[in-house]
Amino acid sequence: LRLGPAELEAARGVCRAVEGLPLGLELAAAWAKVLSLGEIAEEIEKNLGFLRSPEGDEARPERHRSLRAVFESSWQLLHPEEQRVLARLAVFRGGFDREGAAQVAGASVSGLLGLVNLSLVQRDPHHGGRYLMHELLRQFAHDKLSPGAREDALLAHAEHFRAFARRAEPELRGPEQVSWIHRVELELDNLRAALGTLERLGRAGAGLEMAAGLRWFYYVRGFYLESARWHRTFLEMPAEIPQRLRARGQASLAALLKDLGHWEQSMELAEASLEASRAWGDAQTLADASHLKGLLLREAGRFEEALPAFEEALRLARQIPDRWGEATALNDIGIVYGLQRHNEPARAYFLQSLELKRAIGDEQGVAYALGNLAVVADDDEEALRWLYESLEIKRRLKDQQGIATGLTNVANRLVNLGQAREAWPLRLESLLIFRRMGQVVPLAKVLADCADTLLALGHPAPALQVAVAVQHWSDERTVPLPPGSQQALAENIEQARARLGPEAQALYQEAQGLSLEQACEVALEVQLP
Length: 529
What we know:
By secondary structure, the protein is mostly helical. The protein has helices at residues 5-17, 22-30, 37-51, 62-76, 80-89, 98-105, 109-117, 135-143, 147-171, 177-186, 188-200, 204-221, 224-235, 243-259, 263-280, 283-299, 303-319, 323-339, 343-360, 363-375, 380-397, 400-416, 420-437, 440-456, 460-475, 483-500, 504-511, 516-524, and strands at residues 96-97, 122-123, 130-132. A hairpin with a 6-residue loop joins β2 (122-123) and β3 (130-132). α13 (224-235) runs antiparallel to α14 and α16 runs antiparallel to α17.
């Protein structure tokens, strides 16, 4: 294509006006189908002049003012219906799919195609069926909504993603869980924005339902703190929440607080949920709360009390029926037996859980059952094969809790085989994951394992510091670490002191003032020769 002198100068004018910014050039070029280069340059210059007027936006950076001029030119050339759709699409965050665009913005397929052709919306090159809008353009279009229209669009957006969360909840535990985890991850910015809208509007019931429905995704990704914050936000609102939903939200928050190390608060919420769900005859919430109580009692080493709680959860799951809940209860009963060194009944429960998890297509559950089977296995080769298979599934699912636990289990087996050096990087990776997620109790347990491994590696000084810090932390808790962990810590401290001799006492005294975070730093600073 050859341009005449006038057209060439007009093209230069367009480039100068948008300062060569790719998005500006792309948007300007999109109008070449209906306007000449001279007309495009004139439209942009008009808007630049407007923005530079005394009542314009002089505080805005020059490059942004240039882009806004292009945006304004494009906006003025849209039909009113196209303007309405584009403005409502601006309430999405991180992209949207065709279904969302239709429900929130009333966008038809042909309407979306028109916006794509004008480069106002782009097809996501990495995720088929999704669309993206440049953030600066999104902000511009969002500003075009009147206050009333903005509230209407935001509420439609929140309701759309509330329904999405309701649909996702069972799928995250079923045979399509891998694809659904991916789908939820793609919509995470939108889900957060929707929760924020429900919070701002005081929609406690809707927000709590959505937060509880997304908890399993947040669990898999390790976003415990964020999920707990949403639960607390809606539970603490003065708005009325249906009792059944409140009981469900209490059980959901209790599970998060347990993982964050708040045992007493978690038990209090679990008991409240149990009482309410029994009163209402809500078998599903009752099963969930009973299972949670079993987890809390097991964590406290109260195995004789934990077992009946898990058995009640198992009975209710079979009655509902809830096959996922049944398989999970079987797995956790097996753990109770395994912690007491009753490996045969533990293995039987793990096998039942594995069979059921495979039947319902729960890959995450399969990974957990395989990992637990490996822990009680006598054959090291078989155990490591199961452990690595389990870890591979967890990595594919990006299950942060599962990855960290799986790394610990592999490291434990390697240490027992005399391969402490191979185990050490796994210990550290696990440590970093638990620390990032804010899981205090698992973090303390991994630190205790680190002390044991450091002794095996010939590093008694950091082993003593880490073990003493964990022991001091455990002693100050209402629910200390299990007896087995406490005994292992005491033995490691004695071994380290014996190896260090006279210098041990000063290190011991110093380590008593270390926090778990400082103990992490001690472990991470160890350099292996």
